[in-house]
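With this grant's support, we have settled on a layout for protein records. An illustrative entry appears below exactly as we store it:
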Amino acid sequence: MQSHIKLLGILHIVSSLLALFGGLIALLVLGGIGGIAALAGDSGGEDGLAAAGVLSIIGVGVFLILLVLSLPGAIVGWGIYRFRPWAKSMGIVISAFDLIGFPFGTALGIYGIWVLTHSQTEPFFRRLPAPAR
């Protein structure tokens, strides 16, 4: 079961980084199109400048939304990979939210819920008592 837990942590980290990368791509593409529209607006009037502003706002918005949505998954993935006690309950919550993202998120969510609620998983997430001095 230890290999399933480690794999789940890696999958959460990778899926979160992919979502963040998608947000970065959206920011760069929309920013680039906005820059082109701004250059066209210099010679053609204010329409190009308005389009540049709207596209830039949309690009930043998409990036920030994906950052806010993917950052908890990456943090929980790291916690699951390192067997942190808080990561088990948070991983179940993140996996439940992953169910919405059909088809890959659904598969990750089902796998995450199965791994984290399995009876053999509990010992890996117990905090060991501090050694006596």
